[in-house]
Specification:
alpha/beta
């Protein structure tokens, strides 16, 4: 089974190395498209032997085109499965063996996204959600990402249509991109620029980025157990 990592890398990505380490331990190969990345990101990509190329089109307007072109390049490596991670994401409860196991009888895998909040010890409980972060390579299903400039997904639309019972997996994806208030403010500002009327994402989400709050204490074992219980409820399986 050949797993290829999928990554879009911008400038000043403070958590990039952690994500590259995930590709190193979980994937056979990986390709990153850089979008106005700096020499620091390029140096890290080279250090971890990640294939990369530049596409500096404006990210807030050309996201689906950039991701579609990246997937076309990935297909040339003939992957069996694709692991799309953002530059601030890790899979702390997943091993290579687990990826191979959860790929059986599935076409896509939804992980539960945990957003760390203010520090490593807290998370935004109300902002957790399931999202695709592992999908089967199947060009026949299409390689075009959803045609909207923001929130176009991590895989082509087909892989988001799989029933929850067949695609949800009892594992965590840890997201640090909203952890620091300064990063949340920066992201909210960007969304306000590119989606001022909340056409591509609900206003409630945008407002939550700038809402005050210290978050909920993050205990990975406890959160994982809740995810496993929720997964069991959704899939009507016995809890792990």
């Amino acid at each position: 089974m050949k797993i290829v990592g999928q990554l879009v890398c911008g400038p000043n990505e403070k958590y990039l190395e952690d994500t590259l380490k995930e590709f190193q331990r979980l994937c056979d190969d990986a390709i990153a498209v850089t979008c106005n990345a700096t020499y620091k990101e390029i140096a890290l990509l080279n250090h971890y032997d990640i294939r990369h190329y530049a596409d500096n089109r404006e990210w807030g307007r050309h996201q689906p085109e950039i991701k579609t072109d990246l997937l076309r390049r990935i297909q040339k490596l003939q992957p069996d499965w694709i692991l799309p991670l953002d530059v601030d994401e890790t899979l702390p409860t997943v091993s290579r063996e687990i990826l191979e196991e959860i790929s059986k009888h599935r076409e896509s895998c939804y992980f539960y996204v945990v957003n760390l909040w203010n520090d490593e010890q807290h998370y935004a409980k109300t902002l957790g959600f399931w999202n695709v972060r592992f999908y089967k390579s199947d060009p026949g299903r299409g390689v075009q990402f959803l045609r909207k400039p923001l929130h176009c997904g991590n895989a082509p639309p087909y892989f988001y249509t799989r029933p929850a019972k067949e695609s949800y997996v009892p594992h965590i994806l840890l997201h640090r991109g909203l952890m620091l208030p300064v990063d949340r403010a920066r992201k909210a500002e960007r969304y306000n620029l590119y989606d001022p009327y909340a056409e591509y994402k609900g206003r409630q989400y945008y407002d939550a980025l700038v809402a005050p709050g210290t978050g909920t204490e993050y205990n990975q074992e406890e959160v994982l157990k809740k995810v496993q219980d929720e997964h069991a409820r959704i899939t009507k399986q016995r809890p792990i």
